[in-house]
Queue: 2 jobs
Job 1
Amino acid sequence: MIRVDNLHKHFGGFHAVDGASLSVREGTITGLIGPNGAGKTTLFNVIAGVLKPTSGRVTMAGEDITGLAPHDLFAKGLLRTFQIAHEFSSMSCRENLMMVPGGQSGEQLWNTWFGRKRIAEEERALRAKADEVLEFLTIEHLADQRAGEISGGQKKLLELGRTMMVNARIVFLDEVGAGVNRTLLNTIADAILELNRERNYTFVVIEHDMDFIGRICDPVICMAEGKVLAEGSLEEIKANEHVIEAYLGTGLKNRDMVGA
């Protein structure tokens, strides 16, 4: 579904992404791991249109999407979340979800005068959809609570919920487990697995928690210094000498990368 060919992103003399090439197959949950500074988030930002690449190519289902703006990629079904949740803090959780779909009738001044019935019908449908998403994520009790008042883990669930308000084809999740307690992390994992199995979502997940990666991701891709080091199952990755050296600076194969 996604193919990255010889991608580079330079910031002056610093090569954050340095010739990375990888593929993401449709219907998979692909894990992206690597030490801090490996270029994982920068790669996400380039694929998702947040940053323009210095060189290289990104295709989605065979279509060249290199350098397209985030809103154009959103319309094609490519979505991403961020390590720090981006919620509308003064709005309720339900309202945060209702804001997601584009092209709503209420966005046009003409319709606020002459299309009120259509606006009301759309809002009822969006409200029903948002409530369905909140129930799916087991946070329906937060529907009317301001998004700025909920916990960090609940905000991550809400961000995942935003992807369910549109016809997402592939979702890039950036450290979805950061700062999340184990109970909520399990809830997030359950939601990702169900969206993948029942709704055919394709995911790419940056995460440092190897237990989380091991539970939901196959294959796993490891990056270091802006390059792709290895791809395979988590067990294959953990046994790879180059990967071990990138994490630990040593050739010891019996060390555990959990939490790296």
Job 2
Amino acid sequence: MSRRKWASSLLLVLGFVLYLMVNEPQSAYAMHIMEGFLPLGWAVFWWVVFIPFFILGLRALIRITRETPELKIMLGLAGAFTFVLSALKIPSVTGSSSHPTGTGLGAVMFGPLPMSVLGSIVLLFQALLLAHGGLTTLGANAFSMAVAGPVVGYFVYRWMMQATGKQKWSIFIAAALADLSTYVVTSMQLALAFPAEQGGIAASFVKFGGIFAITQIPLAISEGLLTVLIWNWLQAYSPNELSLLQRKMKGARES
């Protein structure tokens, strides 16, 4: 019976990954905002905003690995999940792309700060190895995906757990909103850098956000479902690690 349960869970996960890959056009140009697309001033600004979160995230990761080295494998899982999902891209706004982010799972498990490091490492690897995104725009991309998304996902999860006590539903909503909030922030970043001639920043934000919404809403729903499937898999096949995680990390506690 356990083998059948494991096989069905694995097939569901593979099915979602295949769905996202099949729906990914091959001609994409960026991971969020591509290299050189932002004016230099805005590129530097987002680097300055992002760096403090990265430093705090490093401190959080060091503390977790020192106090609970058994959780290193779970950190690796969170990073790998983010890498795989965020590599599935769909061209969207000019100079940008839509894709799942995968940061909701790590935010629920470890809180938002460690994801600022894991998410930025993912973006760096993809910029250097896969030509997705760039170094000048890494600060802006990391802030939207590795900071804003995890923060929203973590606090939504905590609020949902307190309000409903339903963990799977809370994880689904947290992962979906972590994804969507990333693109709300990206839309604002683009609107600030490229205000419309008529209507300024507000009009530009509505335009960018409206285009992103076409692809991102179904992607966010798919990511929420896949995140719940991964959580179910962890409960079935890594109960000891998940139990340790729930004892040590506030984000993953069931109550």
